[in-house]
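Suppose you are handed only these lines of text.
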Amino acid sequence: MQVPLTKEILDRISDAFFAVDNEWNVTYFNKEAIRVLGRQKEEVLGENLWEKFPEAVNQEVYIQYHKAVREQEAVFFEMYWPPRDMWYNVRAYPSSNGLTVFFQDITLQKELANKQEDHYLSLFQNNPEAVFSFDLNGNYLSVNPAMEKLLGYTEEEYIKMDWIPLVIEKEIATVIYHFQKAINGETTHYETIALHKDGHRINVKVTNMPITVGGKIVGVYGTARDVTKERETEKRLVDSEKLTAVGQLAASIAHEIRNPLTSIKGFLQLMKQMKGEAKEEYLNILSDEVSRIELITGELLVLAKPQAYDFQLINVGKIMEDVVTLLSSQALMSGVDIHSNIEALPEMKGIESQLKQALINVVKNAIEAMPNGGNLYITVRNKGGAIVIVVKDEGVGIPKEILNKIGSPFYTTKEKGTGLGMMTTAKIIQTHQGGFEITSIPNQGTKVKITL
Ligand code: ADP
Ligand code: MG
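From them, the structure of the protein bound to adenosine-5'-diphosphate can be written out as follows.
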């Protein structure tokens, strides 16, 4: 390094720079090196590097420089220099007459990077949501304190195990499915049931997302939140709604049965006073009232016990034919002409006795809507895999404001009606996961459509 021009350039470049000969004696030391290392030029020039910087002997930098000289290959590394509390980015190039070293003060960048890392670390550590990371094989890499609290294991325990014992058995497939999705680059959200270390179950909402480093997916990040309380509250709400519904139903049943019971009681008392000479007229009334109670309780039983029946392969067309036969005499008496068009249908899974009851209710209503006769059209069609049943009458119809009352228990406009038919029908169709729809125009007629 004797060319004056080069010397000037070297002095001016912003990198710190020094050179040593084959005996590690310093042959050059530029201005930036003076600043960064905090030494004077006169102090080090011509001196042995390791004598001037004894703190470095046998340290990383010492090993790297010797390696460069030994292998005659450049080395690049970052180093922390405790005497100055500084970070350097070092490039050392060996040559036949020694080693030249360029280095930069990167203390500021390092501090910034550390600060950023601290920010991220605190986001991880202080996050109220459980946060965890997996490698591609589903082994835990890290978990935060919220995750330790969520399932009761320490980070060391997590890292030693995989997640399979942490969810209930029937959820394992779901968890694998979402993990695979994340590995393939998709962020997914799902809910599952986890097992706490002490054995109790926890409903958790989980998010899985890929960890990408340099454009490559290297693992999966997860977050989890305990939603057990929310789910319990929801369940209690649904339960209490059910209770209210049952309570309302019980109240209306009591009300409906009370009327005939009052009349039965009255007539029984009357007959008691008559000392055995029961009048046939009274007996008829008693029998009528008892029949009414029988009818109401009978319909309610269909409602109450849908799960007691088995789903079997049935033919809806055949059931409708039976219903038409069953009701043909009633139709005849009211002067109603039934026009039925029933297509050949594939068999479907259903409960025959229930569906028959549902169809009887609908066809009976249609006949009852035409006390002075009319046409009743019944079609059963196979429409793209669904079975569509339409029952259309030319009867009195239903005013719009009443339409939404149809199907509430005991809503009836008939003197001898129970108001349970449509409710039962709707419930049965619901059990069969079908659709039920009523459209009507007053004084023109009503159309009931059932899709199965
Ligand atoms: P019910 O037949 O015992 O009255 P439903 O639940 O079967 O009880 O029907 C409830 C009410 O809905 C009937 O009273 C009637 O007012 C109305 N309704 C049902 N179907 C028809 C129809 N096809 N045409 C006109 N009104 C109907
Ligand atoms: Mg009815």
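What can we learn from it? The mean pLDDT is 88. The longest strand covers residues 201-213.
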